[in-house]
Amino acid sequence: MRVIDSARGFTEALEAERARGRRVGLVPTMGALHAGHLSLMSRAAAECDVLAVTLFVNPLQFNDPTDLASYPRDIEGDALAAETAGASILFAPTVVEMYPGYPQPPATSVSVGGVGEGLEAASRPGHFSGVATVVAKLFALAGCCRAYFGEKDFQQLAVVRALTEDLGFPVEIVACPTVREPDGLALSSRNARLSPAERRAALVLHRSIQVGLDALHRGERDLDIVRGLMRAEMTTEPLVHCEYAEIVDAWTLRMSRLAAGELRLLVAATVGTVRLIDNDGVSLGPFSEEQRLVTAGGVSGTGRER
Description:
This protein is of the alpha/beta class and 306 residues long. It folds into 2 domains: 2-176, HUPs (Rossmann fold, 3-Layer(aba) Sandwich); 189-296, Pantoate-beta-alanine ligase, C-terminal domain (Pantoate--beta-alanine Ligase, Chain: A,domain 2), CATH 3.30.1300.10. The chain has helices at residues 7-19, 35-47, 65-70, 75-84, 95-98, 120-123, 127-142, 154-167, 196-201, 203-217, 223-234, 289-296, and strands spanning 2-4, 24-29, 50-55, 89-91, 145-150, 171-176, 240-249, 261-271, 274-284. The protein is globular, with a radius of gyration of 21 Å.
């Protein structure tokens, strides 16, 4: 595996691969690699001729300096894991290489409206602008490729899709399912910071989503009721503080009262001092006129969209 630390060297390496007729797969990461990251790499390696992995802890997406300082870093271990997963190019730039004026913020940043607002953005101001800025720069350096992102960070995936379309990058976004532990906990580098008791309590995030999915599969179509069931499940764990339990349109991330089409159930909570997120999706048929009339008649609410 070739390790590159310069932006120009990264661009030239991928241009050379495409000149040989090879399809490039790209997996952007911030390191602290776990099985979720490796699943993205394995899929990219299987579907593309050359796999490029980026390893960069992006300071622009941290609104808490202590969170940035405590973010785990293991370049040697991550490089070995990436190579084992099939990477032939690893781009591991310094912060100054990516942002020449650092610690001054770059004069140019990318902000994505709509899908980049609410949910995670409400509690992490500036986070998605930092994500969009670094992803836009990585896409500009990488050129034509397929980029692989996990559905576990679903709002981030929506932001990346939007900026790719709006800015016309020659990049195909490939969404990959969330990788979970056998007991259902979504893989995250933050899981290592949980105590044994907190690790057990954290399972309530996945359970709350399952409660919501079960209600929808039983025919409940008032999403306020489903949200309430999800939040109630969260309260069963004293170590867990629920930040949000929401149901949104899977493409626009807009919240509505009535359930129809492709939906995403998303939760965020603090377990001890560790903040975790999770999500899952469901596809429902259109909301029938009969259901709409029953809901509007007062059985489940007004049917008014938010």
